[in-house]
């Protein structure tokens, strides 16, 4: 029999505090009551979760495993309760989507529009988030789904390839390379290259810099002082280039253009859903899959590279953007 969720939630607070007095104060119960709850929880599971002495509390191996796996399970349960209550009341069902900033130009709006048009009674809210936070937010239930550039690391989620895009560079229309239909990587490396701040998306930063790893002499990289400047004013010098995905070509400020880099790998967008999925999550996945094929977001690939296979927990796929 599964443990009661109240005891499980109490355990998670204690796992954070590692102190019965502080945990009891946070929960709002007496310390003896919390201790009794934890003893019953351990008895139900048939294993020790905590190592206690007069001064300290520590998690056992089983306790650490439960502390890691329980939050997404409880979040999924909470969403199920909320959906049931909303359906019983005849009210709308809310869907919260977090997306990388750069996915907000085209990918996220297209998915939100399709979800709202095809699902009466569904209220969809989407907002940009720091990319490294999206997987964790999906896992712990702060949001229901995410869209990231690159296969971002994280536990408690499943990732599905949503879109592939070419990688190229943004540059001024009067740049010496602007009249090239495609630009060689070695040619681009001869000019100053602006990269996104690594803290905003390590996966993206590392992939973009890796494009030029074997070029000699090494190119000059720099990070802009303003992390997201809609005007792209630093490219207007006619010298600086900014590696970017082809989505940049559809929302180009006046005076700038975009050219693909010959031989560069694809950039990817991923749909992020909880490991334990509700019917609503499965609906989001089905709508996203249909949209990706309709808009030709996923060019044909050899057998064995299916776009809707489950992604791994580590970052290993190409990525671009925040």
UniProtKB/TrEMBL annotation:
Boundaries of every HTH lysR-type domain copy: 3-60
Signal peptide region: none
Disordered, as annotated region: 301-322
PROSITE patterns listed in its UniProt record: HTH_LYSR
Pfam families: HTH_1 (PF00126), LysR_substrate (PF03466)
The entry's keywords: DNA-binding, Transcription, Transcription regulation
Entry's family note: Belongs to the LysR transcriptional regulatory family.
Record's protein name: HTH lysR-type domain-containing protein
Species name: Kitasatospora terrestris
């Amino acid at each position: 029999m599964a443990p009661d969720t109240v005891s499980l939630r109490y355990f998670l607070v204690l796992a954070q505090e590692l102190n019965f007095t502080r945990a009891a104060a946070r929960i709002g119960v007496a310390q003896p009551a919390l201790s009794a709850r934890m003893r019953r929880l351990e008895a139900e599971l048939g294993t020790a979760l905590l190592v206690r002495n007069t001064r300290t509390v520590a998690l056992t191996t089983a306790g650490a495993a439960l502390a890691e796996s329980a939050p997404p399970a409880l979040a999924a349960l909470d969403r199920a309760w909320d959906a049931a209550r909303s359906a019983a009341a005849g009210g709308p069902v809310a869907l919260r989507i977090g997306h990388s900033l750069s996915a907000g130009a085209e990918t996220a709006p297209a998915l939100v529009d399709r979800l709202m048009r095809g699902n009466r009674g569904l209220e969809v809210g989407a907002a940009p988030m720091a990319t490294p936070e999206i997987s964790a937010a999906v896992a712990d239930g702060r949001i229901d789904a995410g869209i990231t550039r690159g296969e971002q690391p994280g536990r408690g989620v499943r990732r599905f390839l949503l879109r592939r895009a070419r990688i190229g560079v943004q540059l001024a229309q009067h740049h010496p390379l602007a009249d090239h239909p495609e630009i060689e990587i070695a040619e681009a490396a001869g000019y100053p290259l602006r990269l996104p701040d690594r803290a905003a998306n390590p996966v993206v930063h590392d992939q973009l810099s890796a494009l030029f790893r074997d070029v000699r002499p090494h190119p000059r990289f720099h990070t802009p002082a303003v992390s997201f400047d809609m005007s792209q004013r630093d490219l207007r010098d006619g010298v600086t280039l900014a590696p970017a995905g082809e989505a940049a070509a559809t929302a180009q400020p006046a005076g700038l253009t975009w050219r693909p880099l010959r031989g560069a790998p694809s950039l990817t967008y991923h749909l992020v859903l909880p490991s334990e999925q509700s019917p609503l999550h499965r609906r989001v996945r089905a709508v996203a899959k249909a949209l990706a094929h309709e808009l030709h977001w996923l060019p044909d690939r050899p057998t064995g590279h299916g776009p809707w296979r489950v992604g791994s927990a580590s970052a290993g796929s190409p990525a671009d953007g925040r």
